[in-house]
Hints:
- The protein is mainly beta.
- The protein has one helix spanning 103-114, and strands at 3-8, 11-17, 22-26, 33-34, 45-50, 54-59, 67-68, 71-72, 77-78, 84-87, 90-95, 127-132, 141-144, 148-153, 157-164, 167-174, 180-181, 184-185, 191-193, 198-201, 204-211.
Amino acid sequence: MPQLIASVEGVEIKHVHLRKDRTTLGRRPYNDIVLNNPLVSGEHCVFELHGLADVYVEDLGSTNGTYLNGHMIKSREQLQDNDAIAIGNFKVQYLAASGESGYHQTAEMKLDVHNPAEDLSAQASLHASFKVLSGSSAGLEVPVVKAVSTFGNPEVSVVAVSHRRYGYYVAHLTGPIAPLLNGTVVSGEAAPLRHNDVLELAGTSMQFLLRDGESG
């Protein structure tokens, strides 16, 4: 069964199997795939399934366009295995077949290349949280329990914190003001998080904490 994998800077946020004749993508909540981001139009594009495996993509008059392998879609186009669709800062990978496609294995290998530090491997089994250091919520501790969690204010800055094979990583997701990690700008490229790191996000300082199950 064909499938779509949506990600932001390497962080997977949606995984959809194409079972319907029409699968819509957009910012509005009634879409089949909802990407709540100002760069995404309310009804941005549609994926059409013909027969068992033929999938076509068509832009629905979006403001910022839909790009297939680097070119803007002008009319309906058929997708091929491993095609890359770009919508704003989102990447949607098309896979012609579901099951053990090797996608997750490939993603893990990529992470190994970009983040080879072995000391991160021990972090994967620890419990993560952010402790607010400033503002009226100072002292509040927010657990990080999802595979991908988002924090911040869309009008200022939002980050995605992902729990991966070798630990926790943070990337700038959206917003005009770049967050800071220990005083260094966090870009869209995921950066590793370590115990006691300080994240400056949307005017709030937060300390990243890693503990075993019996701590705190």
